[in-house]
């Protein structure tokens, strides 16, 4: 096996392990959003969303991308490994501590931002949550930076198991926002202990390795990306703060459910992107731009194969999807959800690993996001009190689309893309056609048989529940059956059409066939015919 094939296979295996872990986590957390909307009032759902909005944004922004420097430095200078991780721990601890102190001594910061006395009361405990979250979140990053994909998968799955148990217990026994925050704090305390044990095992006595000149080098590398993350979070989440400030918590709950992102979508992107970042850094160091381009197009094709049909499917069944998950109390979230979906197809563009590999690209992206965030701030500031919720989400989606296209153009320049390279996108075009045509067929099926099929599904769910003498849940189970039937119909048509168009590579079909044969204990050999570029 040549070096190129070996590297591709390694990337495939690592991505598969990370994706497996995140899919397991997705399965464990599937029921949690359903419990939230059924056990909390709409007002408390809004407060819960606001509390975790500020915490998750702080975790992304405050470390300033410093943790991500591990992907770069843990793949280059082995004698600096201990210093690199120790610097990251120190930086994360200090930044998390500053957030805690700010919210402890000035809790009115959150109360003023969200126009909520409840957020003022919760501010100190949110500060504790942020501090522990920032510090413990390095566990997954450092394990993946060390290219220990299986161990990373174990960490992810274990954390999700504990989180699911703690959060479910909190919502069932206490049913308030405070209990959910406390449960999450317990999770991150446990994760912090595991992090310190892991680091001591991989980098013995790392706490004796502080190196100030190297710390400055890490900071110089990370700061442009950290600022870029700050601006990206501002670009994608600042609308939530304006909505929280200008609308009630209940209205924010409706808006946030409309902005609901399928966890599986993010998992696919993160599983591919996180594995590509260290590999892209290595290829850039070796000046192998062509290999970087081929890998990027291949990754984009893999994501498009899932993202394009998910987009078409959800656009058709959006009403049933939202009302099944969150009850009919959130029917007003459906138009917001459909507008938000418009950004999904472009998320198949995998450009983040490229901009991290080229510091000059990171600087260009930084300038771009500064322009976008300033524009958004001006628009929202002038429009607060005038815009409705649909207008707010439309502006955000427009900004995301512009940023994605511009980032792809910057990445293309870094990789010296030529006009003739457009041929590499042909499989992606076939996927788009297959998804769109299949979506039209589903739409026809939906318009003709929706009411009759939904009623049949509801009747079937009531019949099933009658055996266990449960009177509630018919809408949830009936809606799930309806969505499942629509998905099966759409999926079958899409796969047949995509295969007929040649959008599915032979190598991928052979892999699926090989897995099926192993699952059914058939030992017949499988001949791999696919191209190397198809494996990411």
Features:
536 residues; mainly alpha; 2 domains; 21 helices; disordered N terminus; disordered C terminus
Describe this structure in words.
- The protein starts with a helix and ends in a 17-residue tail after the last helix.
- Helix 14 runs antiparallel to helix 15 (334-341).
- It has two domains: 3-417, no CATH class; 429-521, no CATH class.
- The protein is built from 21 helices and no strands.
- The model is unreliable at 1-9 and 522-536 (pLDDT under 50).
- It has helices at 3-29, 32-39, 42-61, 69-73, 81-105, 108-114, 117-136, 138-145, 149-173, 177-202, 212-246, 249-258, 263-285, 289-326, 334-341, 352-357, 359-383, 389-414, 426-466, 474-501, 506-519.
- The relative contact order is 0.10.
- With 536 residues, it is mainly α.
Brief sketch in words of this structure:
By secondary structure, the chain is mostly helical. It contains 21 helices and no strands.
What oligomeric state is this?
A: single chain
Q: How much strand content do the residues show?
A: under 5%
Query: How would you characterize the largest beta sheet?
Result: none
Radius of gyration based on Cα positions:
24 Å
Distance between the termini: 17 Å
Counted by DSSP, the helix tally is 21
The percent range for helix content is: over 70%
Content-based structural category:
mainly alpha
Residue stretches low in confidence (pLDDT < 50, at least 5 long) are: 1-9, 522-536
Write down the secondary-structure element order. HHHHHHHHHHHHHHHHHHHHH
The pLDDT mean sits at 84
